[in-house]
């Protein structure tokens, strides 16, 4: 079966190449032979060159370099974009020139040296092009000198062909969605090479020596590797020895590696965020936040990198923001010295540095750093600069009389007298207070009116 580069398999393969994976791993994950991958890469390279990109730009857009690039570049000069059995461009130009002079289709075909079937195929292609450009049916009939019966027949064929293409596209999208699960499973269960297995075994021995109290230099000497390799390992794990406890099973609250692979795959296949969310059983906002957080500077979403970054972001405990950023801490201290409130500081940061996401702080973060005993980042002396002047946090329910109401000696509703239930006295009805207030204001208005009349 001939596989096209526009098929879901071809899209997955080219996307994997674009993400920086090698030819063999990408072909293995897509389930194709590497020569098919080379053919798709060659087609993509020639397409980039036909769009006006230079050799270096086309190679960068392809995301792949190989020793076959000179041969591909040599094919750019002779590539016409037409099938080898297709008629020459000069013949088609001569046909349309003869047809424009008013000759019949068969005479124009004879003048161009092509068959009648080829001429009628060109007529059909020109008809489809005009209808695709929103030209009305009557105008197409006039331009191509068609009979009404022939024009209606071409229109029916065009509509049937469009419907067939839509159905085929919908079927291909459905098959792509079904194969996305298999593709994610195949990528996650990809075989590990011998070098990767040796490297994993070496890393396990290194961390075991570190748990036994060995230094980095001693552990590297025992394993026969350079000290920089051990330093790189420690840096990758944030200078923490990995725990021996197995990783907890996913609860479903967070996206896992498999779902991230499906997101990247479905996006490459042309699905919208809502369609991706529907296929994964997630909310569209979850997919949008995932893409906003983990897309790189070029707008690419790399599922492996996104999963690694997400696990690092979920790690606890985190370094306090005011501790990790000296610049942010200095700006907050400067504004607190001027007796600014935390809300004013937060709003000023967002307005003054709209592009710098590092200079964002919530007012509650400042309050917690100043008023909580375990707060970090700001010295407690800055608490005196707050409007309240407090040094500890005081909840709104805690009063000098203890928890509860501020009204002293309040009579509860279950202790009211029995005559209230009879509703015989004024003031025991709902709305009495409103009615008394209305009467009072009416009397005031009457007094003012009488005073104004007497003064006149």
Automatic annotation (TrEMBL):
<dbReference type="Pfam" id="PF13936">
    <property type="entry name" value="HTH_38"/>
</dbReference>
<dbReference type="InterPro" id="IPR009057">
    <property type="entry name" value="Homeodomain-like_sf"/>
</dbReference>
<feature type="domain" description="Transposase IS30-like HTH">
    <location>
        <begin position="252"/>
        <end position="294"/>
    </location>
</feature>
<protein>
    <submittedName>
        <fullName>Transposase</fullName>
    </submittedName>
</protein>
<dbReference type="InterPro" id="IPR053392">
    <property type="entry name" value="Transposase_IS30-like"/>
</dbReference>
<dbReference type="InterPro" id="IPR051917">
    <property type="entry name" value="Transposase-Integrase"/>
</dbReference>
<dbReference type="InterPro" id="IPR025246">
    <property type="entry name" value="IS30-like_HTH"/>
</dbReference>
<keyword id="KW-0233">DNA recombination</keyword>
């Amino acid at each position: 079966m001939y596989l096209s580069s526009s098929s879901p398999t071809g899209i997955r393969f080219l996307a994997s190449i674009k993400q920086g994976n090698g030819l063999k791993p990408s072909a293995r994950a897509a389930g194709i032979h590497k020569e098919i991958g080379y053919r798709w890469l060659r087609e993509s390279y020639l397409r980039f060159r036909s769009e006006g990109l230079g050799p270096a730009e086309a190679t960068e857009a392809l995301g792949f370099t190989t020793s076959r690039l000179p041969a591909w570049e040599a094919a750019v000069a002779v590539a016409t974009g037409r099938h080898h059995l297709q008629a020459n461009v000069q013949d088609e130009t001569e046909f349309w020139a003869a047809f424009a002079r008013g000759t019949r289709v068969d005479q124009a075909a004879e003048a161009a040296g092509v068959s009648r079937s080829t001429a009628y195929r060109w007529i059909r292609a020109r008809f489809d092009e005009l209808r695709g450009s929103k030209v009305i049916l009557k105008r197409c009939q006039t331009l191509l000198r068609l009979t009404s019966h022939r024009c209606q027949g071409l229109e029916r064929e065009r509509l049937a062909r469009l419907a067939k293409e839509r159905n085929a596209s919908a079927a291909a999208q459905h098959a792509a969605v079904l194969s996305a699960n298999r593709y994610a499973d195949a990528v996650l269960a990809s075989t590990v090479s011998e070098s990767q297995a040796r490297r994993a075994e070496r890393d396990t021995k290194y961390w075991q020596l570190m748990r036994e109290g060995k230094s980095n230099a001693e552990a590297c000497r025992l394993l026969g590797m350079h000290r920089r390799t051990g330093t790189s390992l420690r840096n990758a794990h944030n200078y923490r020895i990995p725990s021996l406890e197995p990783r907890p099973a996913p609860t479903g609250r967070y996206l896992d590696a498999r779902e991230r692979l499906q997101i990247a795959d479905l996006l490459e296949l042309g699905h919208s965020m809502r369609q991706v969310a529907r296929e994964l059983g997630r909310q569209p906002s979850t997919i949008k936040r995932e893409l906003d957080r983990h897309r790189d500077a070029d707008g690419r979403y790399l599922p492996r990198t996104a999963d690694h970054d997400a696990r690092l972001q979920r790690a606890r405990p985190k370094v306090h923001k005011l501790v990790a950023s000296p610049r942010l801490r200095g700006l907050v201290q400067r504004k607190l010295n001027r007796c600014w409130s935390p809300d004013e500081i937060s709003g000023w940061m967002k307005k003054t540095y709209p592009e710098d996401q590092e200079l964002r702080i919530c007012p509650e973060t400042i309050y917690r750093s100043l008023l909580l005993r375990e707060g970090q980042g700001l010295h407690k002396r800055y608490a005196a600069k707050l409007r309240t002047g407090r040094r500890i946090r005081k909840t709104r329910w805690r009063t000098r009389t203890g928890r509860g109401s501020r009204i002293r000696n309040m009579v509860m509703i279950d202790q009211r007298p029995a005559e209230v239930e009879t509703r015989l006295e004024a003031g025991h009805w709902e709305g009495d207070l409103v009615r008394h207030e209305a009467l009072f204001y009416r009397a005031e208005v009457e007094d003012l009116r009488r005073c104004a009349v007497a003064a006149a």
